[in-house]
Amino acid sequence: MTIDLDTQRTATAADTFRGLLDGRVHVPGDPGYDAARVAWNFAVDQRPAAVAVPRTAAEVATVVRLAAECGLRVAPQSTGHNAGPLAAQGLADVVIVRTSEMSSAIADPVRGIVRVEGGTIWEPAVDAAAAHGRAVLHGSSPDVGIAGYSLGGGIGWYARRLGLATNSLTAVEIVIADGTLVRADAENNRELFWAVRGGGGNFGVVTALEFKMFDIQTAYAGMLMWNLKDIEPVLRDWAAWAPGAPDEVTTSFRAMRLPEMPDLPEFLRGQELVVIDGAVLGSDERGEELLAGLRALHPFMDTFARVPAKSLVRLHMDPEGGAPFASDSVMLGSFPDAAVDAFIGAVGPDATTSLLMAELRQLGGALGRPHEGGGVLNRLDAQFLSFGGGIAATPEMGAQAHADAVRLSEALAPFDNGRQYANFAENPVDARSIYGADVWTQLTGIRSAVDPHGLFAANHRVPRLHEDGATTA
Ligand SMILES: Cc1cc2nc3c(=O)[nH]c(=O)nc-3n(C[C@H](O)[C@H](O)[C@H](O)COP(=O)(O)OP(=O)(O)OC[C@H]3O[C@@H](n4cnc5c(N)ncnc54)[C@H](O)[C@@H]3O)c2cc1C
User: Fold this and answer.
1) In the structure, what pLDDT confidence band is assigned to residue 6 with cuts at 50, 70 and 90?
2) Which of 142, 158, 163, 299 could make a disulfide contact with 123, Cβ separation 3.0–4.6 Å?
3) Within 10 A of 230 (CB to CB), how many other CB atoms are there?
């Protein structure tokens, strides 16, 4: 007789976990399972052995210990914004630890930090810092989880001046494989602190994070809009200007095909647009000086003005509350005229594409320089980051959007620097491409030391290093 190990493990998990945490662990067949397994990206169909929704670090530790006893793995997940590469690994032997009910943000102006629980999204942390006239290194969306974003890198509107958000972390508290809660910072568990800052959820479930606040109350920020048919001069100008622009400015360029969605302001519905948005950390005069070249190209809309820093969390108008999405991304070492032509060929006004947006994020500045005392991902070695994404309301739409996003990446292949940015990589990638070759041995060695039996399942898997130099998940 053969025994199906996965079926046996799942049955044991169901018996062990049912009723645990006052009913906040959901196993297949339970009424709450289908709702609990939904990721922010609705297009990702996650079917884990269980979904646990702890409220405290002690509850996280209980789940981690029990999962290990049952021979299951543990996947930390805050929101499921980047659930795709995790689900692609197969989750039949995985307990998802959804940290969304561990949500609070407290600013400590004396220490100059914000402390959040492991499932907190950005908006409450932005508000907590703003109450003290400060800002934090959030990204373009108010409901992205701070944990996943910060452990994967973190590119926001202050990035070319202040670098990756991961390097603004001052401490994390994390339940590791033996179920203990440890603090990792500049004094304690320093190797672990180095590894999690860029190494993602490979080392345990983060139950709290602390990160720096910056003395920013306002910014000169907004967006410029053109019709998509005007893309060529605008992209050529922006692409030539962006790499050498001073650190105080960070922008994004998007070619957008907006659907007829009632949630959108009427004047945007069904429109095909070019949007450049961003922020300048400087005076109005400096902002005007930096944007003069782009303004000379006559955008039909220009909202750049002095705004409260906290409003930047919605500047990009990202969807909130979940969306079905398929995408692809690529990091670009350069973006010469030939890249402008390739981008326009793939998503310009004459292209046939299902992509809702094709985005280029302006990198460089502080993002490109090593951050002293930073983590394993202490800089991004690229000039631009390209991301193509489309709506995946049905599997067919998802397949089409993914194919079109890959087509955009392929068009830009001559400028691809071979690296990946974990946060924008929403499909499986070789994790080695996220890090420099110089840190790979150290990173995989720390994974082996902290998680010797490979308990944790992250979206981008850093394998364990064995004595003979081989690696396994
Ligand atoms: C609309 C949208 C806007 C975005 N904007 C930006 C942006 O401006 N800049 C940017 O850099 N990125 C951006 N991203 C990418 C985003 O940073 C990644 O999707 C990130 O992984 C989201 O983190 P999460 O915790 O919300 O997602 P999840 O899918 O919950 O987590 C992703 C991974 O992070 C790890 N993780 C999450 N929580 C924990 C935890 N508590 N403990 C340990 N590990 C954990 C796990 O490995 C997990 O698989 C955006 C994504 C979307 C969809």
Assistant:
1) low
2) 142
3) 17
